[in-house]
Design brief:
94 residues, single chain, three-stranded antiparallel sheet, little secondary structure, 3 strands
Length: 94
């Protein structure tokens, strides 16, 4: 039986809470994890979603393979700063 390390999705704003519960920082992977033998139920809000499939790797096509977009096909971005930070308690990818 192989016991693996459980990595967490901890937003920066919640890192102190995860650390207080016993999560450790993996500097090489730059990700929080639960040490082996620790109860995972305390970290349920940061565990990866069990129902979400692994994300496929994508590769970008070479720009030379695609002609430039026409003005009608191009995406127009809004003017100014339209960034809205996520402030929820649950992971947005669940």
């Amino acid at each position: 039986m192989t016991i693996s390390t459980s990595y967490l999705h901890v937003p920066y704003a919640q890192k102190d809470a995860a650390k207080a519960l016993g999560a450790k920082w993996d500097a090489a992977k730059k990700q929080w994890f639960v040490p082996v033998g620790t109860d995972l139920s305390r970290f349920s809000q940061w565990l990866p979603c069990p129902s979400s499939p692994a994300r496929p790797q994508t590769t970008l096509a070479s720009p030379a393979k695609h002609p430039p977009l026409s003005k009608e096909e191009a995406i127009t971005l809004p003017q100014g700063n339209q960034f809205t930070p996520y402030a929820g308690d649950t992971a947005p990818w669940c």
